[in-house]
Design brief:
Belongs to the peptidase S33 family. The protein is α/β, with parallel strands linked by helices. Helices cover 43% and strands 12% of the residues. It has a 7-stranded mixed sheet, sandwiched between helices. The longest helix is centred in the last third of the chain and has 23 residues.
């Protein structure tokens, strides 16, 4: 886990994007990839519903499956656009990525607007969301997982002892093998950060832009850094929120999630302590921490509403990313402490979907 900027801080950085004069889109430079221009239309119903009430446009952009053979097989990437609100102030495009890896960004522009994206950005930039290659509506791969499969997102449940660690390692091995067995068309080897960065540049060209600005969260920072490194002459203004560095997907990177939780937990503890009269989790940060350990220990012995100690720790972890999630987290803790199984069941049904770090 990386320490996310507060949303206000992130928006303040984004506001910097809105400074300065307009940038006139220049003709495609020599050596530009031959990419057909985007033809905007309606978004798929599920994307439109997620973005509502903001209205987005959607399109597809064809890119090479294998950039070693740019004229070979092509795949279609689905992209979205929220056009700049003030054409007279328009500076260019701002591509968006929510992280994951594998998070859909088609409706991300609408989410940012709903959370207060400043007009200095929305007036001057077309906000471009997308499903990156291999996910959602962009040549998705499938490992054949089902809802009954014991596979996790990128953050596995808490492993309390060596036996649990070994069991989780076996699950990871099985998941990798199942993906390999289902990779009939050889798509997996083309799902790389470098190829996705190349896709961004194809999208830029298809939009008719000389340069692109970029906002990425978590894993999206690795993608943004890759793009800026590979195409420095085409990178305009780049905002990297919650930078993962270069170790995110290796063993050392995964270990840093625990450090991130330890560093971030005090923020929630102070928040909850100031609201003890509402949630009853403790009047001091130390008491809030004690409540956490008490709940986790009790759930280790006797799960409530389908939540055991391992899942409780994971839910807590996943809700420390943003302060806007603190109230839901505090309500869950409160229900557990008070033995309110009905409330805990309702909250867990909503929160079990937040396993992705």
């Amino acid at each position: 886990m990386k320490r996310h900027l507060s949303f206000g801080q992130s928006l303040a950085l984004l506001a910097v994007l809105g400074l300065g004069g307009s940038l006139t889109t220049a003709p495609a430079a020599a050596g530009e990839p031959k990419t057909p221009r985007v033809e905007w239309g309606q978004c798929p119903e599920d994307v439109a519903a997620e973005a509502a009430p903001t209205e987005l446009q959607c399109a597809t952009v064809a890119v090479p499956l294998d950039y070693a053979e740019p004229e070979g097989e092509q795949i279609d990437l689905t992209v979205s656009r929220l056009a700049a609100a003030d054409p007279d102030k328009r500076r260019g495009v701002l591509m968006l990525n929510p992280g994951g890896p594998g998070g859909s960004g088609l409706a991300l522009s609408a989410l940012l607007v709903a959370q207060g994206l400043p007009s200095s950005v929305t007036d001057r930039y077309d906000l471009i969301g997308m499903d990156t290659r291999g996910i959602g509506r962009s040549a998705p791969v499938s490992c054949g997982f089902t809802t009954d499969s014991p596979y996790y997102a990128n953050i596995p449940p808490y492993a309390g002892d060596d036996t649990a660690v070994i069991a989780q390692a076996k699950v990871a091995e099985q998941a990798a093998q199942q993906c390999a067995d289902n990779d009939d068309d050889g798509m997996l080897r083309h799902l790389t950060t470098a190829n996705t960065a190349r896709d961004l540049d194809r999208i830029r060209a298809a939009l008719g832009e000389e340069k692109t600005s970029y906002l990425g969260y978590s894993y999206g920072t690795a993608l943004g850094a890759a793009y800026a490194s590979m195409f420095p002459e085409r990178a305009d203004r780049i905002v990297l929120d919650s930078n993962i560095g270069d170790t995110h997907l290796d063993r050392d990177g995964m270990r840093r999630y625990a450090l991130g939780m330890e560093q971030t937990f005090p923020d929630f503890a102070r928040w909850a302590a100031r609201r003890h009269d509402s949630y009853g989790l403790g009047r001091t940060p130390e008491q809030v921490r004690a409540s956490y350990l008490t709940i986790a220990g009790a759930l280790d012995d006797a799960p409530v509403a389908g939540i055991d100690g391992s899942l409780f720790r994971l839910l807590t972890f996943s809700h420390l990313f943003k302060q806007t999630q603190y109230p839901k987290l505090a309500q869950t803790w409160q229900a557990m402490l008070e033995g309110d199984e009905a409330a805990a069941r309702g909250l867990s049904a909503v929160q079990k979907g937040t396993r992705d770090g």
